[in-house]
Design brief:
The protein is mainly alpha-helical and about 170 residues long. It contains six helices and no strands. Helix 1 runs parallel beside helix 3. The longest helix has 29 residues.
Amino acid sequence: MNHEIRDDRKLAREPLTPLKWVLYLLLLWLFCIIQASFLSYVPIFGATVELTFALVLLLGWKRGPVAGAVFGMIGGFLLDALVGVGISVLPLLFFACGVYAAFTARRLFDHPLTYLLMTVPAHLLLGAWRAIEEKSIVHLFAVLLAGLIGSLIVYIPAAVRYFRRKN
């Protein structure tokens, strides 16, 4: 007989209300604006801090595969529209990584360190795509570093709430 108590709170997420969908869309739009306008002029080793991608990963991590997929697709299209590169693979990549974050959240426990470890493969994939665009393998590591910085920035409120709940 197994005496472990299973925590099913992460598997049974509350559904998003229409108001939360709108608020998350506005937050996604705001992060796209910040990334396209301000952060594109402050590169880290030649790469922009990926706030939009980090938010898509966080929404997939916290809200499930449907939210990760929808917000990933919308975030990719918004970022393409604001940066002005036309239509690229970015919406599909954001879509896949939002779903990846949701399915990873089911396997890992909710802790800031596991969240950051989960984001590494996603940022490597985005970095590989950006390195192909820039034709420079060094750009992969710059995107990885900038992506992890973006993930740290986006996850700060959730981490504070996590540590407050533990105390």
